[in-house]
Every structure is written in structure tokens, then in C-alpha cells.
Amino acid sequence: MYADLGHFSQLSIQIAFSFVVYPSLILAYMGQAAYLSKHHIIESNYRIGFYVSVPESIRWPVLGVAILAAVVGSQAVITGTFSIIKQCSALGCFPRVKIVHTSSKAHGQIYIPEINWTLMLLCLAVTIGFRDTKRLGNASGLAVITVMLVTTCLMSVVMVVCWHKNLMVAVAFTLFFGFIEGLYFSAALIKFLEGAWVPIALSFIIFTIMYVWHYGTVKKYEFDVQNKVSINWLLGLGHTLGIARVRGIGLIHTELVTGIPAIFSHFVTNLPAFHQVLVFLCVKSVPVPHVRPEERFLVGRVGPKEYHIYRCIARYGYRDIHKDDTEFERDLICSIAEFIRSEPSSAGNSTILFRDPDSAEEKMTVVGTSSSNLNGVTISEAEADSGSLSNMAGASAQAETVTTPDKPRKRVRFRLPESTPTLKAETEEELNELMEARESGMVFIMGHSYMKAKRGSGKLKKMAINYGYEFLRRNSRGPTYALSIPRASTLEVGMAYHV
């Protein structure tokens, strides 16, 4: 009954339930009912229950089976909780936690240390606090029947939305099963003060945490959208952005898929220099299990070509594994190089994602990872002390090597497909610029925000933002992609958000 689709196939679960689990349950319940119907009054210290109906000669073996069943059920609850928390965290409905993938083949097998310890402490607290199986049974009964009632309501939604059944069929299904489960639910509520209040209290606490986190996340995103910098402001600065452009790639993490984040203007107004190549990176979790590698990146251009500013949206499913920083950097640079190479003839490979009246971005091109795009641009890096700028004719190109006293530079080479036609001069120059910037290194620029409710906000909003959300943000983990970023190459830009 507690089988997980992440560990077993659908067919194996159907066969096991139909021919083993369901007949066993029916026999067990029928046996209990037959015993209780004959023994209404038991003159003993035992209460009427499951073990009273079991013959004394096999009571201890049945107890052993029950313990093993409890172990299986508890493990199923734990793994199910891991899966739900992971999906909620990916959709922005739960604070970020550490997720460990225990299998390289089955992505559904995960382990979340924080949740595992929390479940252990809750189990100990409930057991020590009650010290009575009757109250534990009341709490468990209300939790189980509530799950059944909620499942019935959600099943009616699935029937209409996914299965495209008639609305009256879904209503009839809900009324029939909902009426039966409603009777059990009302009976379980009678035991509210006798232990049934525990699952309601825990669900209220978890709901509050999820609501506060989601509310704060939405408000933060709305603040970013409302305070994003206009593209006209950027165009007014000129191709040098009004400041010195130093060598290297500046990778700015943002949650915006369009426009320029406020941290960019905050940075350039306080520091007089920026990198020769800028990339606005947005990492998005989409509500699907996996995103195909050939559809991983959406790459576009911000402003004219001479600005050397790009936007890249990296999409991950809630079961995708984020790569380490080295492999991710390689895929990112290759996707931008492929975008530059195929931009003149990318009509069949691009999609018009959005149009912003204040933006010069017209379309984003779907570009896969370097491993999935065999006919695209690939990159090779090798240690080198010196080098020279070579012509990009043929199937490869390399940029001038620059050495610094602190660490050796790498010679970067782009390998182009043999079928690539002769590149235009401006395309060749742009690829040279990207290679030169890659050789000089990459700096990760991240915003470090502090949220606070505006003056005049209600008390509930102030409590949710100033205390609830900030407490959760400080005590939760950072974004998944931020965990693999080398700290030596990270620059944080602080900003105060008044929402």
C-alpha cells in the first residue's frame, strides 16, 4: 500500500496490490468483524482490538509481522515526505533544503537530512507526550481519513482536467465517496481533544511556513519586476555602459526573465568598472520532472551586439540534478557561442518568448547543452603560458592567452562544426571577444537582499515579512546553483527590499 513509484514500476505495484495486499486486507478485516460480532463483551483486561481477535498461539508471530509492516509504512511516509518537500521547494512553496540524490540512475531516490531529523524529533515528541496507544490511534485516524477525503476531492479535479470526464460524473464521484468519508471524518473529529488535535496542529504549522515563504517569494519577485531597469537607460549609457569595461565575464544571477535587475544599476552606480561580457542568468525550476538537455537553455541578446550583453535562462525540472560549476560554465559558454554562431539563421531554432515595449530583446533561442548538441559549438580548455590570436577559418578558433601573477590562464578554443559556413566578420569578432573573456575568468555576481514591509503595512504583513520570511530565509539554504559556485569568484551585491 505504501509502495513508491520512485522505487517500483507501476505494473509491479498493481500486481502486488491486486493479488497480495488487497486480499490480505479483506481477510483481516472480515476476521476482525466476525470476531467482534460474536464477542460483544469481553471479561478481561484487554480492550477490544486487533490483538484480541488473534489466537494466542500465533500472537507473537503476528506482532513480528506488524512491526515489519510498521517499518515499511514509516519508510514509505519518510520517502514520500522527501519527494513532496523537494517538489514544493522547486515550485517556491517551501524553504530551500539540502537534497541528496542517493542513486545515479533513479532520480526519485533522494534524502533530505533536515526533514529526516525533523520527522524523528516529531515522532519522539508525540510518543513521549501521549504515552497512550488510544490517543495515538485517534491522531492517526484523523490524519488518515483527512488524506482520504482530500484525495477524493483532488481525484474529481483530475477527472475533469486530465481525463476530460463529464462534470456530473466527477460531482457524482465526489458526493458518493465524499459522503462515506465525511461520516468517518466527523466521527474522528469527536476525538479532537483526545489526541486528534495533533495532526491538525502540525498541518497548521506547516501550512503557515509554506504560505509565509510563498508570500515572501512572490513579493520579492514583484519588487524585482517593478524596479527593473529600463533598457532605454542602458542604451543611453553607450556600449561601454559609461564605465570602464574590464576583461572577463560577469555572470549576474537574477530571477527576472526580462528586463535588467535592480542590482545591476546598484552595482554600476557604486563601482566604476564592469566586465567586457555580461550575462544575465536566470535559473528556473519548471513543474515537470525533467527538461531535455537539448532544451536546457534559452539564450537572447540585451541591447546591440557591440554591448556584449546576453540573457540566458537555464531550465531545470524538479527531478533534474544541477551540474557542478565547471561543467555548467562550459555548457553556458557553449550555448552563448552557439547562439552567436547561428543567430543569422536561427529562425527554425528560436522562439519568440516575449516582447517588452521597453526592451530591445526580440527573441530567445533554444540551445541545448554541449553534450546534447553534437552539431553545435564545443569548447576545449588547456593550460598555456602564451598564445596568439588565430584566424577562425576552418573548424576551430582560439584567442590570445593572457597570464596573471596569481593564477595561470587557460587557452580557450571553440570548435565549430565542419558544416559551418564562412562566418561574418562581426560574428567572428564577437566569438573572439567571448573567448578572450572566458580566458580571463568568470565572476559570479549575486544579490544579497533584505526584505522589510513598507511603512503603513498591516500587522499581519509586517509579521509575515519582517519576522516570518526573514527568519526562514536566514535559516534556509541558498539556491541550488549557488552551492556549487566557487566562493573565490563570487561577488555579492546587497540591497534592501521594501515590499
From TrEMBL:
It comes from Kalanchoe fedtschenkoi (Lavender scallops). The keyword Transmembrane helix applies. The chain crosses the membrane at residues 12-37, 58-78, 110-130, 142-161, 167-190, 197-216. Residues 1-234 form the K+ potassium transporter integral membrane domain. GO terms for cellular component: plasma membrane. GO terms for molecular function: potassium ion transmembrane transporter activity. It is found in: Cell membrane. Residues 248-498 form the K+ potassium transporter C-terminal domain. InterPro entries: K+_transporter, K_trans_C, K_trans_N. It comes from the Eukaryota. This is Potassium transporter. It is a multi-pass membrane protein. Its main location: membrane.
